[in-house]
Each structure stands twice: as C-alpha cells, then as structure tokens.
Design brief:
With 350 residues, this protein is α/β, with parallel strands linked by helices. Helices cover 41% and strands 17% of the residues. The protein has 2 domains: 126 residues, Up-down Bundle (Four Helix Bundle (Hemerythrin (Met), subunit A)); 212 residues, Rossmann fold, CATH 3.40.50.10470. Helix 1 packs antiparallel against helix 2. The structure holds the ligand CSC[C@H]1O[C@H](OP(=O)(O)O)[C@H](O)[C@@H]1O. The site of ligand LNRAV4D5 has 17 residues, from helix 2 and strand 9. The ligand CSC[C@H]1O[C@H](OP(=O)(O)O)[C@H](O)[C@@H]1O binds next to helix 2 and strand 9. One of its GO terms (molecular function) is S-methyl-5-thioribose-1-phosphate isomerase activity. Pathway: Amino-acid biosynthesis; L-methionine biosynthesis via salvage pathway; L-methionine from S-methyl-5-thio-alpha-D-ribose 1-phosphate: step 1/6.
C-alpha cells in the first residue's frame, strides 16, 4: 500500500498530511503547539475518528513539554486545562475523548513532572502504533465477512488517512489489493466537505483499487442498476445498543440497504464504542459552519443570506445495521451482544 499515513511523530515533532488540500496537493504541515493541533482538528486538516484521537494525544504530549521544571501539582492543573481545550475541538467522534482520557490515566500514576512528560509522549506513540494493527485486523475481519462480494458502496472517508493506517471501512479494499482480492468500490462524494470525492477516490487510486465516485443522491439508483452487494461505512461513536453515528448521509444508506435487502456493515475499532451512553439519542451531533454548504471552495452557490442546516453526522439505528466489524471480531448491533464485548474488553479499553 503506497498511501502515506496521515500523522508522523519524528524526534518530538508532529507532522500531519493537510487533508483540506487533497487530492491536488500532498502537503505536510508541522503542528508545533496545542493551538495548532486544535485548529488542525476543527478545520479538518486532520480528520477521521481514530486520526483525531491520535493527533489529540500527541497534542497533549506537546503541551506537557511547556511545563518542564514546574512542580507536579501545577503540572496536573495545567495539563487538565489542555485536556479540556482539546476535548472542545469536535464533539461527535468518541475516539478524541478515549485517547485524551487514556493519556490522562498515565498522569495519575506518576509523581515527577519530567517522568510524566516522557510517559505522555510514549503513550501517544503507543496509541498511534496500536491503531495500525487494529485497523489491519478490522480489514482482515471485513474481508472474511464480505466473502466474495465485490461491488461495495461506501460514504465519506474511513480510510488510511482517517486512521493510523489501512482505515476501517476502506481497510478490506487496501488489504484485498495486497491479497489479490479486487473490489469495485462506489464512493459517495459526501457533501458538503466531499471526503468521498476528494479523499476516498484519491486514497483508493493510490492503492490501484477500482473506485467510482457518485453524488450522494445517486445512491438508490446505483444500488439498483450497478448491483451493489454490500454497504460498508466507518463510525464516529457507537452507543451501547449499537446505534451508530457516522458522516451525514450514512443513515439514508442504511435505509436503502434495508430496502434493497443488502448487508449494511459498520467497521470500527473498540475505541469508537461509547458504553457510557444507552442509545444514539445521546450522541452529540456536530453542526458546522454554513459556508461548508453555501460554498464550493471559494464559489458561493446559494443566494446571499440563505439559511443553512449543516449537521456533520447522523445516527443509524441498530436495527438497520447487519453487523459491526471490529478488531476483536464481528458483532450484531445488539445491546446484549455488545455488552459481552464491553465486559470482555473492559480492561483493554482502559
Ligand atoms: C475511520 S473514522 C472516519 C469517520 O470520520 C469521518 O468524519 P470526519 O471526516 O468529519 O472526521 C466520517 O464520519 C468517517 O466515517
């Protein structure tokens, strides 16, 4: 696979692939401060639930270095403020909070500022490295579940550049290419930010995966006329009952999958599950700036003063989800089944 992973940590310096410039520019930018990290996340320079978590973890490691030499009590106060700052960047992807909470757990066990600064960097690197293997495993499990179905529809970008490597929903396509299993992927362009048209098309082309971009309103006609055999999507937060928040437009694909009687799969790591909430009704849905809808690039497409509703996510109810593919296996979107997963992994998920 020749796609660059979107995040690099080299000798204490954090660099990300600026996804707002893809597909026409591949530009790496350095995030030197916690403010740089916050802005990169909120402006979608780095995006995708796992990638947001990894970057925020490095952001906390960067912030900690400012406090070299202060007493541990002052360190704890200031790093907690930094935690709250980064947690305020985007509300829906639970991986952001999962990663930040995991970083803060490191702090609880240490009593010297210098030791804590070192340990925070080590923990951020662990979160990053673990994600690559987790996504590869999700890809393996998805490949086995797809089991010869080759025509697959997806939305947004749940690929390598949304994670540490491989991606989640796109992982079977990248891995399949490495194993000689060729898919025909149909990618919804994903208005308004166009993650499908800009990022998934670019990413799959880098792996020589057959990809066709459609506009979001072509989904039903495409399923009917192109013989789509399955739909696979990523996730930003999965509630205890299996309700799943993902990019806006995902819910209607699940409704179409149900109508056309084809499987609808969610691919996500354990870090995307939020067992603290009962159902999708409890998932905060990010609303973004009107300009994302009123403009395409610099070009305004609506009349001046047009009202806009711009939710970045929607919630697919568990009854519409055929299966949830994780690194630990494949699960029904069922409260009791997922409760067993939660119990089995409680320690692992920290
Ligand atoms: C592998 S998680 C990717 C997930 O995140 C995306 O949202 P955004 O581009 O706003 O960060 C989308 O919901 C993807 O499914």
């Amino acid at each position: 696979m020749s796609i660059p992973t979107p995040i690099e940590w080299q000798e204490g310096r954090l660099k990300i692939l600026d996804q707002t410039l893809l597909p026409h520019q591949t530009r790496w930018i350095e995030l030197e401060t916690i403010e740089d990290v916050f802005e990169a996340i909120i402006q979608l320079k780095v995006r995708g639930a796992p990638a947001i978590g990894i970057t925020a973890a490095y952001g906390l490691a960067i912030a900690a270095k400012k406090y070299e030499g202060v007493d541990i009590e002052t360190f704890h106060l200031r790093i907690h403020e930094d935690y709250l700052y980064l947690a305020g960047s985007r509300p829906t992807a639970v991986n952001l909070f999962w990663a930040l909470d995991r970083m803060m757990k490191v702090i609880e066990t240490l009593y010297s500022t210098e030791e804590t600064i070192i340990s925070l960097e080590q923990e951020a690197k662990k979160i990053h490295q673990e994600d690559e293997e987790i996504c590869r495993q999700i890809g393996e499990n998805a490949l086995s579940l797809l089991n010869g179905r080759k025509k697959v529809l997806t939305i947004c970008n749940a690929g390598t550049i949304a994670t540490g490597k491989y991606g989640t929903a796109l992982a079977p396509f990248h891995l399949g290419k490495e194993k000689g299993v060729d898919f025909q992927v149909y990618a919804c362009e994903t208005r308004p930010v166009l993650q499908g048209a800009r990022l998934t098309a670019w990413e799959l082309q880098q792996s020589n995966v057959d990809v066709t971009v459609i506009t979001d309103n072509m989904a039903a006609h495409t399923i009917a006329t192109k013989g789509i055999e399955a739909i696979i999507v990523g996730a930003d937060r999965i509630a205890s009952n299996g309700d799943t928040a993902n990019k806006i437009g995902t819910w209607q694909l699940a409704i179409l999958a149900n109508y056309f009687q084809i499987p609808f799969y969610v691919a996500a790591p354990l870090s995307t599950f939020d067992f603290s909430i009962a159902s999708g009704a409890d998932i905060p849905i990010e609303e973004r700036l009107a300009e994302e809808v009123t403009h395409i690039g610099p070009n305004q497409i609506t009349p001046e003063g047009t009202k806009v509703f711009n939710p970045a996510f929607d919630v697919t109810t568990a009854n519409l989800i055929t299966a949830i593919i994780t690194e630990k296996g494949i699960f029904e979107a069922d409260r009791n089944k997922l409760a067993q997963l939660n119990k089995a992994e409680e320690g692992v998920r920290a």
